[in-house]
Amino acid sequence: MMALAAPLKKMLIGRTFSTEKSRIKLFGEMDWTLEPSRGMAQLIQEPAEEVERRFKESGEDFLFRFGYENGKVITDELFKYLRGEDKKITQKTINDLLEFIGIGQLEFISTSTEKDGHHHVVVRMTNNPIIEHARKMYREKSMVCSFFRGIFTAHGEKYFDAKNFHLNEKKCMCKDPKISYCEWESRW
Ligand SMILES: [Zn+2]
């Protein structure tokens, strides 16, 4: 309870998030929508299964592209509204925001970057209820992680200022029942 309460309180008191006219706003401007996690798992998985059935295309590749394009829209909108001090996004800010919106936590295992865009980034996604529900519903057939890899690839590109950034899944909690995280890596 305490772990969730702290960032939540901070964002509400700091008016990072507010509600007005029955809408949830970030910085008083950007619209947000809260969705049930189990339903989200289905919303992500089913189009990928349909793509495989109809077009014989990899559902994971489809979800990665879809997540990447979605991540770019989200990142561009976020940066449009971030001002001054807020622009200095730290790993803690990212995790506070992720915790607040309920899509897990990122553990930064490796974050080495060079000025020319070369990098080695390894992150672990834990405590993501959408991935956890997908594991229960679809087990090793779950493709939802590819959607998140796509989103975080778009974010990572901008955050690390890295070239040829592409998160690949090294370990997956949907495919390996012994672990409780997914590990994603980008190296160039
Ligand atoms: Zn995974």
How would you describe this protein?
This protein is of the alpha+beta class. Helices cover 48% and strands 21% of the residues. The protein has 6 helices and 7 strands; from the N terminus they run αβββαααββααββ. The strands form 2 sheets. Strands 4-5-7-6 form a 4-stranded antiparallel sheet. It has a 3-stranded antiparallel sheet with strand order 1-2-3. A hairpin with a 2-residue loop joins strand 1 and strand 2. Helix 1 crosses helix 4, helix 2 packs across helix 3 and helix 3 packs parallel to helix 6. The longest helix has 23 residues. The radius of gyration is 17 Å and the shape is globular. The termini are far apart. The model has no long low-confidence stretch (mean pLDDT 89). The site of zinc ion has 7 residues, from loops.
